[in-house]
Amino acid sequence: MSVTSEADDEAGVGSLRTCIVSRQARSPEELIRFVLDPDGRVTPDLRRKLPGRGVWVTASAGAVRQAVKSHAFARSLKSPAEATDALADDVDKLLERDALQSLSFANKAGLIVTGATKVEATIAKEPVLALLHAVEGGADGVRKLRQALARRWGEAGVRLPLVHAFSSAQLDLALGRSNVIHAALKKGPAGEAFLARCIRLAAYRHIEGAPQTEEIDARPDAVLKDDAAGIRNG
Hints:
Layout: E1 17-18, E2 25-26, E3 31-36, E4 42-45, E5 55-58, H1 61-69, H2 72-77, H3 87-108, E6 112-114, H4 116-125, E7 128-133, H5 139-158, E8 162-163, H6 168-175, E9 182-186, H7 189-204
Parallel strand pairs: 7-8
Antiparallel strand pairs: 1-2, 3-4, 3-5, 6-9, 7-9
């Protein structure tokens, strides 16, 4: 596996890129690519498809803030680069929107079941990929569904990811339904893509040195520690 320079976008699949902040080589999936727009503004390129010379920053809000503070974009791009203090928040919004769009795709693929009763019935008859709980959801409802997982699937159910990342209003909009509090994500490529985006969002909001949690908790005020971006395993 080759390691490219911080502004080298010509490497083939499997190559590592260098973060302009930490100087560490990472896979593109662990980084965010940035390019300059025609007006010289630093622009995030989540899909890694925008034209122009790109630089790479570790996919965390802290790293993006440090890149802005240290003027790393202009230095690495060897060009004037406008990067405002709002850049990290802008990336956060893009990642959140990306995850919710992916949830919508999973729903269109028939992989989402909503409502505590229907979720519990689904758990009883087929394996699920993850459970989703709105941030407003009560602890009692979450606990009952976790118990249903444990009864039906034992250790595998206990270790199932729980996504606690979005408000009920956000889930309503993504799913085209009302008052979504609890949902199950069934297995399928679209479901796996959504889960991966949830983990990426939670990792971006990761705070070093915080207490460990095992939940995919990507709320803006969440405090996360573990390397899997807060995957609760029961």
